[in-house]
Amino acid sequence: MERTALRRRLMWQVATVADVRRETDTARTIVLDVPDWPGHLAGQHLDVRLTAEDGYRASRSYSIASAWPGSDTGSTIELTVEQVPDGEVSPYLVDVLKVGDPLEIRGPVGGWFVWTPDQDGPVQLIGGGSGVVPLRAMLRAHAAAGSTTPVRLLYSVRRPESVIYVSDLKELATSDDVDVRLVYTREAPAGEPRVGRIDADVIERHAFGPEAGATTYVCGPTPFVETVADLLVAAGHDPAHVRTERFG
Amino acid sequence: MSQANYLDGNAAAGALSEVFAVDLTTAVGQCNGCGQTAVFAEARVYVDAPGMVARCNGCESVLLRVVTTPHDTYLDLRGLTYLRVPNS
Ligand SMILES: Cc1cc2nc3c(=O)[nH]c(=O)nc-3n(C[C@H](O)[C@H](O)[C@H](O)COP(=O)(O)OP(=O)(O)OC[C@H]3O[C@@H](n4cnc5c(N)ncnc54)[C@H](O)[C@@H]3O)c2cc1C
Ligand SMILES: [Zn+2]
Question: What pTM was computed for the model?
Answer without folding.
Answer: 0.94
